[in-house]
Write a structure and sequence with these properties.
Elements: H1 3-15, H2 18-25, H3 29-43, E1 48-50, E2 55-57, H4 59-87, E3 91-97, H5 101-104, H6 106-115, E4 119-125, H7 133-137, E5 142-146, E6 154-163, E7 165-170, H8 174-178, E8 181-182, E9 191-194, H9 200-203, E10 219-223, H10 226-234, E11 240-243, H11 245-249, E12 255-261, E13 266-273, H12 279-291
Parallel strand pairs: 3-4, 3-5, 8-12, 9-10
Antiparallel strand pairs: 1-2, 5-13, 6-13, 7-11, 7-12
Helix pairs in contact: 1-2, 1-3, 1-4, 2-3
């Protein structure tokens, strides 16, 4: 018997009226009737005597009521106690973020603060050239990053959101005139090489090594920050695939963000050290799961 069905039975046992029960639980009368019939089939006997004028518990129904009521009340008490304990959580949670991800997480952060007002959330910017170093050093507890992440010491949580890839080009670049580009065009142009410790498989989630047709994507001058990439693109030295948040948050003189046809979506997720899953961290991950 599911918890909702138990709630329907207990409410009907109290109200002894299908309409009032449905109104109280914000369900239809047919939903109440369906739940009671299902319970009666499972038990093998009527739980209520129904006439056109009244509804009463049968003897079997009274036995079920006597057994379920304390158990149901106990569940409610346990949930209330857990909620109270959650509100009493204290401590500091440091969130590592790339680019504009802290802003994108604002709805989750607001809900987390409402549930855990005594927890302080701190922020630490992480650059894509060294995405996991701060996490491994313990400078941050959680990190927002694009996928895939295949690091054996890191755990990957729920996907936060998805967004398209754009192609960042100089405003006077030949590709800009068309207003959009195809991902196969990457093989005909140069994209930045990334200086740092970023794993190649992770970088390929945004900066592919080959096009879908298997053509190699040439690498050019090195960059370690988004500002350096913007400068290289504006100077006409490279083009660069970037998540759509770049277009929304980082306009720059002399550059254009083009739709990139054929490119996969960029998926952002939470990542943390597998050995560092604290109760605060799990509470935050749970809040993100609720948003999904």
């Amino acid at each position: 018997m599911e918890l909702r069905e138990i709630e329907i039975f207990l409410t009907l046992a109290q109200e002894l009226h299908f309409g009032r029960t449905a109104e109280r639980l914000h369900v239809s009368v047919s939903r109440v009737s369906q739940a009671i019939r299902k319970q009666e089939r499972a038990i093998g006997a009527p739980l209520f005597e129904r006439t056109s004028r009244r509804v009463e518990l049968t003897t079997v129904g009274e036995v079920l009521l006597a057994g379920l009521r304390p158990a149901y009340d106990g569940i409610g008490a346990a949930v209330a106690a857990a909620s109270a304990a959650a509100r009493r959580m204290t401590g500091t949670l440091t969130l590592g973020f790339m680019g504009a991800q802290a802003h994108e997480l604002e709805p989750v952060l607001a809900r987390f603060h409402a549930r855990h007002p005594a927890v302080e959330v701190r922020f630490h910017e992480v650059v894509f050239s060294d995405p996991f170093d701060a996490l491994r050093r313990g400078d941050v507890d959680l990190l927002t990053t694009w996928l895939p992440v295949a690091e054996p010491d890191l755990s990957v949580g729920p996907v936060l959101r998805e967004e398209p890839l754009r192609l960042l080009v100089a405003t006077d670049h030949p590709l800009a005139a068309a207003g959009r580009a195809d991902i196969e065009a990457l093989a005909d142009h140069t994209i930045p090489a990334i200086r740092g410790t970023a794993p190649a498989a992770w970088l390929a989630g945004v900066l592919p090594e080959r096009t879908p047709a298997g053509r190699e994507v040439p690498r050019g001058p090195g960059a370690a920050t988004y500002q350096e990439i913007l400068a290289l693109v504006a100077a006409g030295k490279v083009v660069c695939p970037v998540p759509d948040e770049g277009r929304r948050y980082y306009p720059w003189p002399g550059v254009t963000y083009l739709p990139l046809d054929g490119a996969p979506l960029v998926r952002w997720a939470l990542v943390w050290r597998s050995s560092g899953a604290t109760s605060l961290l799990r509470a935050f991950v749970t809040e993100v799961g609720r948003a999904g």
